[in-house]
Design brief:
alpha/beta, 3 domains
Length: about 450
Amino acid sequence: MPSDPREGRIVVVGASLAGLRAAEALREEGFTGPLTVVGEEHRPPYDRPPLSKQVLLGTAAPDTTGLPMRRDPDAQWRLGVRATGLDPLAKRVLLADGESLPYDRLLIATGTRARPWPHPQQAALDGVFTLRTSEDAARLAERLAAGPRRVLVIGAGFTGSEIASACRERGIEVTVAERGPGPLVGALGGTLAKLAAAMQRAHGVDLRCAVTVSALRGRDGRFVGADFSDGSRVEADLCVVALGAIRNIEWLADAGLAAGPHGIACDAGCRAVDMYGIVTDDIFVAGDIARFPHPLFDYQMLSLEHWGNAVAQAEVAAHNMVSPGPLRRPHLTVPVFWSSQFGFNIKSVGVPAFSDQVVIAQGSLAERRLVAVYGYRGRITAAVTVNMAKWLEHYQGLIESAATFPPGPGAADGQPLVTEFPIPSDVPDARGLSHGPTVALTGHLPVRRLTVVRSAG
């Protein structure tokens, strides 16, 4: 390690949002050494949220979603090459083309990929898609523009719901299948899932909840429909599998890091943790791949698949990579995410899944315009707005100050709470969902109790 942390060699593995913002921040923080950014895709970094919205609607081309550079990071870009391994002792990143890159400090920002349909032969049918990359979006948008009679979407999380919304806006019939009790239930709980279900059905979606797709059917190599666990069938021309994401950790199998299905564990300063729970000094983590502790949520490990978190965490990681210990800072940003679907603007702050109760503080379910406030053990932990985004900042302040739940009458606009008493937030076990959460608490959930088993003798 160089004596001056602003010198040496830094390698960033992952050339998406977190990787780009980290590279820019490293230069802004005064890093002067060689900087290499490795990315599996051939394209320079681009924005992913428009892929399930504007691109599918045909209002934006996939090649117009590139991320603007805030400054030139003066980096060597190794695009179109995959990282295949990490040797932390030799401090080298191994690449698929046989080369290896030496580093003094490493940032891992390899993000996620779409979870595929689990049956390879069915997944290979013409007309079966996943949506993660710009190439995925381009192919799917082309097929939607051709006017299919019906699209089947498997999974009613944010991505699946946005795809269904785009289909209906294009005038295409759509069936949505969700294993859980309602759309968005893993992220927002049962109360708002009922609103989301009403929104979809009001826009003509054939929404089927508490059901699984048992098989995709094909004819002459083309997708033609699906069988459901309740014995029913649907005929469709296209199928979009929206079963959540898989974190790209396989290349780290022999690296000795605490990497698993929820990502790579790190401390609040973005330093990676090894398999024995020891914090490393030269390997950092940022973006969707990271699991990090947050004091507002009982120091449970948070895994987030959100745009804002990727940016904030990348900037903290970059700062800490080039700063001596006493000047390092923690990543304590309160999660914020948003979605536009079926004419509704849904925004969330905090972690709705970290809750046991919820109240409707403003607006109403009937008006489809509201603020839902979530609490856990008498403390506000999240708020979700539907077409009332101007109040989000107010509730973020309440979350950050650990304000009492439920909020008092007139906490926001001088009006009494819409629901007089809190009701259960009804957050399901994520294992019972098909869509996968975009925010995951990867410690023990609030409704569970830790059982300690002691051996006899």
